[in-house]
């Protein structure tokens, strides 16, 4: 079976590499020739542990290649995965479907042999049914194009593992041949006992957004309790551990801090609200606007703590920001709470030094006015305050002894609840953490 993957961004590049790793001949397709050139040399335009190695291995073996040519893959592949982006529309909550629509229309125009198109992008419910109509209408005469929906649940930083060893597979199908084809594509993964859910289009589309909405809600749930423990005392980490022992709740995604960001959770909960609102069901997902608000309030809290620790005025003071990626093991700064907090402190007049092991370059493109430096030592030099905003391992391991010789004043805010606060307090530091009373 020959496979094409349309879109070579985060999702598409990972999926193409995963399909090659499963043994298929794969072509990654993108409209951006620069991306295609780089990928063809085995270079990845973003940071993802383990992925460049797999891409290089299969580019070298000839099993994986990249092209901008739809006509070539339309005549070649049996299965076309669509993994293009669905970003939030500027100034609106709804997802922008122009890339998905363009990809599907290009496929319809160029597919010259019977094929299965498989949607992987995160889309508003109802999209698959609409695209199926589009494919039927636009397919060439005598060519049968079926559609299936197969949402993707990979996390940045764990993309390879999540692709090759997913928690579950979901197939949304609406034609007799789609399920057997998808079973054949994923045969090796299914053979390991991975749960498979075969369902209709709408359920498959909703599974994806429901999962992300649940995860976002879980994070905002613990962060809402942070607001309470900050006011009355108590330890948010212990609270999370204690409720997390209940297997019905579970400890994962109960890490309190500056909240969720990235290219998925924030935009997905907004797009879901926009979609249900179109359906006249605003009330069903209204709680997600609260989830969003709680999340955004965490950034304000971090800024407020920084300013109070510095006596109410940050102007001309030197702040060391550790981490601007939206989470560790990623160079992604899309909707990054950390970058937002750093930028707000800059806007308030602080001199902000930033060090992130991977995300400096992306952050500098988005917000160039911060002082990006190449090491923790440079970032902390003469700092009046250190702000730990993304929990990279190198920051989690920090001790008072590491930082004290560098900084001008011993002040630390742990916005991710990852260092031992007592150790800093005992060493004479002014210490605050999100979720703890200060
Ligand atoms: C998320 C989902 O976890 C994936 O399952 C999904 O496939 C993906 O979106 C997607 O839709 O493509 P990702 O955006 O890579 O994956 O990041 P997460 O690991 O979910 O983290 C999201 C944010 O939540 C990060 O900013 C992280 O710092 C924050 N977070 C996470 C917390 O604040 N607390 C936690 O306990 C966990």
UniProtKB/TrEMBL annotation:
Keywords: NAD, Oxidoreductase
Domain UDP-glucose/GDP-mannose dehydrogenase C-terminal residue range list: 320-421
UniProt keyword Oxidoreductase, yes or no: yes
Catalytic activity: UDP-alpha-D-glucose + 2 NAD(+) + H2O = UDP-alpha-D-glucuronate + 2 NADH + 3 H(+)
Transmembrane helix recorded as keyword: no
E.C. numbers: 1.1.1.22
One Pfam family it belongs to: UDPG_MGDP_dh
Pathway of action: Nucleotide-sugar biosynthesis; UDP-alpha-D-glucuronate biosynthesis; UDP-alpha-D-glucuronate from UDP-alpha-D-glucose: step 1/1
Single GO term (MF): oxidoreductase activity
NCBIfam families on file: NDP-sugDHase (TIGR03026)
Family affiliation: Belongs to the UDP-glucose/GDP-mannose dehydrogenase family.
Name this polypeptide is given: UDP-glucose 6-dehydrogenase
Organism annotation: Arthrobacter halodurans
């Amino acid at each position: 079976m020959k496979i094409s993957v349309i879109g070579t961004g985060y999702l598409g590049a990972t999926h193409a590499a995963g399909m090659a790793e499963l043994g298929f001949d794969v072509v990654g397709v993108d409209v951006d020739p620069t991306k295609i050139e780089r990928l063809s040399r085995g270079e990845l335009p973003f940071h993802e542990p383990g992925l460049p190695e797999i891409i290089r291995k299969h580019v070298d073996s000839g099993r994986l290649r990249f092209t901008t040519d739809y006509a070539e893959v339309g005549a070649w592949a049996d299965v076309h995965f669509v993994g293009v982006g669905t970003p939030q529309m500027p100034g609106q909550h709804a997802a922008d479907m122009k890339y998905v629509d363009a990809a599907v229309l290009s496929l319809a125009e160029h597919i010259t042999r019977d094929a299965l198109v498989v949607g992987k992008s995160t889309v508003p419910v109802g999209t698959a049914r609409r695209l199926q109509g589009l494919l039927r209408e636009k397919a060439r005469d005598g060519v049968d194009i079926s559609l299936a929906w197969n949402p993707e649940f990979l996390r940045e930083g764990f993309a390879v593992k999540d692709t090759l060893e997913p928690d579950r597979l979901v197939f949304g199908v609406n034609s007799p041949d789609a399920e057997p084809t998808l079973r054949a594509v994923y045969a090796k993964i299914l053979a390991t006992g991975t749960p498979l859910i075969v369902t209709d289009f709408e359920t498959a589309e909703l599974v994806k957004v429901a999962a992300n909405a649940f995860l976002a809600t879980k994070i905002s749930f613990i962060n809402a309790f942070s607001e309470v423990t900050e006011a009355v005392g108590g330890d948010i980490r212990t609270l999370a551990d204690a409720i997390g022992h209940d297997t019905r709740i579970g400890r994962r995604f109960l890490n309190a801090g500056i909240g969720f960001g990235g290219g998925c959770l924030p935009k997905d909960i907004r797009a879901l609200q926009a979609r249900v609102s179109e359906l006249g069901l605003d009330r069903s997902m209204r709680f997600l606007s609260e989830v969003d608000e709680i999340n955004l309030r965490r950034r304000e809290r971090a800024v407020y703590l920084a300013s109070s620790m510095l006596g109410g005025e940050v102007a001309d003071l030197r702040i060391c920001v550790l981490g601007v990626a939206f989470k560790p093991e990623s160079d992604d700064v899309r909707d990054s709470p950390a970058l937002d907090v750093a930028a707000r402190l800059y806007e308030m007049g602080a001199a902000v030094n930033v060090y992130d092991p991977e995300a400096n370059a992306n952050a500098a493109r988005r917000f160039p006015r911060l002082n990006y430096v190449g090491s923790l030592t440079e970032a902390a030099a003469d700092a009046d305050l250190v702000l730990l905003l993304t929990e990279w391992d190198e920051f989690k391991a920090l001790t008072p002894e590491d930082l004290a010789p560098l900084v001008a004043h011993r002040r630390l805010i742990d916005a991710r609840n990852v260092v031992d606060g007592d150790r800093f307090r005992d060493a004479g530091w002014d210490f605050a953490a999100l979720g703890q009373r200060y």
